[in-house]
Amino acid sequence: MAEWLGRRLVEPNGYDRGRDRPLPLAGRWPRAARFDGRVRYAVAINDFPIWRGRPPLERFLRHAGGPLSARATAGFLERTSRSSLRFPAGFREALRAHLARVSSGAPLALAAE
User: Fold this and answer.
1) In 3D, which of 61, 70, 112 has the Cα closest to residue 95?
2) What element of type H or E holds 59?
3) Cα(78)–Cα(73) distance, rounded to whole angstroms?
4) Where in the sequence is the domain holding 80, given as residue range(s)?
5) What is the number of domains present in the chain?
6) Sheet of 33-35, strands arranged across
7) pLDDT tens for residues 64-98?
8) Does pTM top 0.90 for this prediction?
């Protein structure tokens, strides 16, 4: 980030007016805005000045995973119940089923790739 910012300070590029949107008169404030001396604009921009693609997680990981222990599964399941995050349908049920299996002492197999 610091490198990008330094380059931009030394060699600024033109501003992309295609990101400008009318500034709403009511409701939530935008994440970014600008004023050109006459008109105020909301600016459609995010936290990433340059987006660089990242490898998918399955290619990034270098070690085979293993099933979560009963303790880890129970802790994670409990945190999902307190979380405001949304999970896909059936996710928590799958966690509960996994917890039941690991708690019973039954042998576990990793999903086939």
Assistant:
1) 70
2) helix 57-60
3) 8
4) 67-104
5) 2
6) 20-22, 40-43, 33-35
7) 778 889 999 999 999 999 999 999 999 999 999 99
8) no
